[in-house]
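Module 6 notes. Inverse folding takes a fixed backbone as the condition and produces residue identities as the prediction. Think of it as a translation problem where the source language is geometry and the target language is the twenty amino acids. Below is one complete input and output pair. Work through it position by position during the lab.
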């Protein structure tokens, strides 16, 4: 016998078949309705909305080449990524079949010149980051890890032989790379990492563990940072997929960037030949050469995410009707939409100025950290407004904003948390480092 609750909203049953049917998502064992059928009043994000967020005509600040690249990337991700992103985000799986489409854009390698890389300006590379993020932040992170971290490390810190050996294939996405700095015990305090590299005849032995490493479960090339046991300095190494003693396991149960395959990497007596040690990484400070560029790109991810959320809300409010009128007709909704739009204009202009400072050789670590911290903060505010505007559908990934809301959270944290980035800028403007508690600083001077 099945007993229904008084409001018919729930039930309990003594039928053993019922629990199995419930696991399938429906008491009757039927699949859920397609969202277009279940909610015909608004278009889901699988058909991506037109871009409506460039209110201050930022496009006019771009060169014709940058404008053309922007449209090329936009058309690709709207056509090839938007229809499948919700499915893969829900499954927390990576859509390997779209990699050739991304490769055809020729954006992997970003600012690197030669070796089959596109040699883009920092501004052009930032724009591509925003355009991919506008549709799907996970695919943007996949490219950023591969290109602005791993490939750039080889380009800036590798030998000529290493550049010629690895970069051409990576630029075409024929091989995929990851970048491993963070460890289980050391995130913000990355310079204290424990993974070790011990010199042996003909190479090095790596021992240790890395965590939160994007692309690591399928990467062909792994850029690893480890502490040289002789000098106690941080060195860099290129490790190849399948090396004996190397294991990478997927981190489960993430609530954001679910398409990105973050992993735990373990090194148990992993041998790296001398030819795969990166000669340009001889201290932790050498990682900053890479992070300076990648932090610019990361600052553009929340710009793109916010653009996509605004575009979705803009279309949704004109399609969805309540009280006999489109939601766009109500004053409070217009106010929230304008707040989102204003944030995006400010975020974009800060991001653009950051690119120009870098291109002129004037960007400092504090500039990059302030931009990353402030832009992600404003993006959080923007996404929260979008979530409110979509009402109940604001919690469905099908309408983008819920998914974007979750995807923004890890971006708010990675490449330096909001707090750490503010302290980087704070140190620059005051001349005083405040990363450690004052009591510990005093003790260390005694």
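Target side of the pair, the amino acids:
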């Amino acid at each position: 016998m099945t007993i229904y609750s008084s409001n018919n909203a729930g039930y309990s049953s003594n039928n053993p078949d019922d629990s199995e049917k419930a696991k399938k998502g429906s008491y009757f064992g039927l699949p859920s309705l397609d969202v277009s059928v279940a909610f015909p009043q608004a278009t889901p994000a699988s058909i991506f909305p037109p871009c409506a967020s460039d209110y201050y005509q930022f496009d006019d600040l771009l060169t014709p080449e940058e404008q053309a690249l922007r449209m090329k990337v936009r058309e690709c991700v709207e056509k090839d990524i938007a229809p499948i992103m919700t499915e893969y985000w829900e499954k927390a799986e990576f859509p390997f079949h779209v990699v050739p489409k991304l490769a055809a854009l020729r954006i992997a390698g970003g600012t690197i010149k030669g070796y089959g890389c596109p040699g883009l300006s920092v501004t052009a590379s930032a724009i591509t980051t925003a355009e991919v993020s506008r549709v799907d932040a996970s695919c943007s992170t996949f490219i950023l890890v591969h290109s602005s971290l791993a490939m750039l490390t080889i380009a800036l810190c590798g030998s000529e032989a290493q550049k010629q050996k690895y970069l051409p294939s990576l630029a075409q996405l024929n091989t995929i790379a990851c970048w491993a700095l963070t460890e289980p015990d050391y995130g913000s305090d990355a310079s204290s990492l424990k993974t070790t590299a011990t010199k042996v005849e003909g190479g090095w032995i790596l021992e240790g563990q890395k965590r939160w490493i994007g692309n690591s479960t399928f990467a062909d090339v792994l850029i690893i940072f480890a502490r040289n046991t002789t000098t106690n300095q941080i060195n860099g190494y290129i490790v190849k997929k399948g090396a004996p003693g190397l294991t990478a396991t997927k981190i489960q149960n993430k609530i954001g960037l679910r398409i990105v395959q973050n992993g735990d990497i373990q090194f148990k007596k992993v041998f790296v030949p001398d030819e795969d040690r990166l000669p340009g990484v001889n201290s932790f400070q050498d990682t900053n050469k890479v992070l300076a560029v990648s932090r610019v790109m990361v600052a553009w991810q929340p710009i793109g995410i916010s653009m996509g959320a605004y575009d979705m809300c803009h279309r949704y409010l004109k399609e969805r009707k309540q009280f006999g009128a489109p939601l766009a007709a109500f004053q409070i909704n217009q106010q929230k939409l304008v707040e989102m739009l204003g944030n995006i204009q400010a975020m974009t202009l800060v991001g653009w100025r950051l690119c120009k400072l870098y291109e002129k050789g004037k960007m400092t670590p504090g500039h990059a950290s302030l931009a990353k911290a402030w832009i992600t903060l404003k993006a959080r505010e923007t996404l929260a407004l979008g979530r409110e505007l979509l009402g109940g559908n604001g919690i469905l990934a099908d309408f983008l904003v819920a998914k974007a809301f979750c995807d923004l959270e890890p971006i708010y944290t990675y490449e330096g948390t909001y707090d750490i980035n503010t302290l980087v800028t704070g140190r620059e403007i005051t001349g005083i480092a405040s990363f450690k508690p004052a009591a510990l600083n005093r003790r260390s001077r005694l």
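Reference fact for the lab report: The chain is about 45% helix and 15% strand.
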